[in-house]
Amino acid sequence: MNSTEDILSVQNLTKSFKDFSLQSVSFNLPRGYVMGFIGPNGSGKTTTLKLIMNLLHKDSGEIKVFGLDHQKHALELKERLGFVFDENHFYDDLTIQDMSRIVASFYKNWQPKTFAGYLKDFNLNPKQKIKQLSKGMKMKFSLAVALSHQAELLIMDEPTAGLDPLVRYELLEILTNLIQDERKSVFFSTHLTSDLDKIADYVTFLHKGRVVLSSPKDDILDNYGVIKGARELLTNELKGLFIGLKTNPYGFEGLVRDKRSLPQSFKEQVVLEKPTLEDVMLYTVRGVSAC
């Protein structure tokens, strides 16, 4: 890392509702990197994002952005944050040009030339109405807006959901180019973990309001392992090493947190594969099952 500075720090964050609670959520995103924020629906991802963005009030804990308290310095931080959501929050009957003029009035550092450059790069017609844009084009417009006021931290909520593979690829390419500027970071909440396989440096996995893991992506994929083998190889002791395990009358398939902890004699009799982030999430959520 070129810098140990955390652009986003969340410590012991809690928020309780009638039927759900966020419990001591902690993670850190260093400047210049992409963090993937994953978890099944209902895990608390959206609640965490709303707390970071001051749309909800936390019960306890600490959120710092650029080292500043996110509530005490809310107005200052707004200038340095960019938001891209799955849903469109613009006026449908306005043109891109007219909508951008409204948005520009909220930011001291709005850069008209930068915005015009992104419209050109993204093939967006400034005279086109918002309601005429496809979902992918709306996402690109949101991204152009977020990047045209010198945002240093881009917070994205399901930005690639519902997009065709080509548009998803284009957006991921844009983000990859963005973080070549090592002063910028991206916090990317999604359930499409294959996108994070491509661009994430760090991954934070939330399940039932708790952080399951928060680590460099490469460490996760190097340490975890998917194991496949004959059912008779599984002893009760070995079963205890699995985070998630599926068995049937003939064999088993499961996920371990540390493949190096497995006995060598066992590893020689099974198939050991490198997991994807989806494997890590699905096996953790499903746990142990048998058929």
UniProtKB/TrEMBL annotation:
<keyword id="KW-0547">Nucleotide-binding</keyword>
<dbReference type="InterPro" id="IPR003439">
    <property type="entry name" value="ABC_transporter-like_ATP-bd"/>
</dbReference>
<dbReference type="GO" id="GO:0005524">
    <property type="term" value="F:ATP binding"/>
</dbReference>
<keyword id="KW-0813">Transport</keyword>
<protein>
    <submittedName>
        <fullName>ABC-type multidrug transport system, ATPase component</fullName>
    </submittedName>
</protein>
<dbReference type="InterPro" id="IPR051782">
    <property type="entry name" value="ABC_Transporter_VariousFunc"/>
</dbReference>
<dbReference type="Pfam" id="PF00005">
    <property type="entry name" value="ABC_tran"/>
</dbReference>
<dbReference type="InterPro" id="IPR027417">
    <property type="entry name" value="P-loop_NTPase"/>
</dbReference>
<dbReference type="GO" id="GO:0016887">
    <property type="term" value="F:ATP hydrolysis activity"/>
</dbReference>
<dbReference type="InterPro" id="IPR003593">
    <property type="entry name" value="AAA+_ATPase"/>
</dbReference>
<feature type="domain" description="ABC transporter">
    <location>
        <begin position="8"/>
        <end position="233"/>
    </location>
</feature>
<dbReference type="InterPro" id="IPR017871">
    <property type="entry name" value="ABC_transporter-like_CS"/>
</dbReference>
<keyword id="KW-0067">ATP-binding</keyword>
